Amino acid sequence: MAQFDQIVLFYNQLINMADEVHELINKELYDLVMDKLSYHDRVFIQIKMAKKCAKLTEEEQKEIDKLEDILREKEKENIELMQVNMAIVKKELNKIKIKDKVKKAYGQVSPQEGQGSIIDVDDSYRPENSQA
Prior knowledge:
Number of domains: 1
Structural class: mainly alpha
CATH class: Mainly Alpha
Number of helices: 3
Radius of gyration: 32 Å
Order of helices and strands: HHH
Shape: rod-shaped
Distance between the termini: 106 Å
Largest sheet: none
């Protein structure tokens, strides 16, 4: 296989991977996204090594540049989608934090609870000789 064909194959793998990552992000399968991205890095290193050794014609380089533009656009879309999802998650976490603060402030049993309050005091505790 020619060096150019190998580079094109690698770029096509990355483009397909970017599509898969997009679908995984939409399904909120972030662990699988991370697995794909680690494989993505390995393929990207292979591309760099292949491009270093390759002697491409001007026409071949233009085709590679087109593939890079396609890949760049897809990865940019994935990054934007992740940023939107992160903002949604942050918003939901803030709601949970607020609810937790409210529960802590108003729902917690105080150590003095059960001891009564000054309003609930009845006169039965007073000695019989004292009169108020």
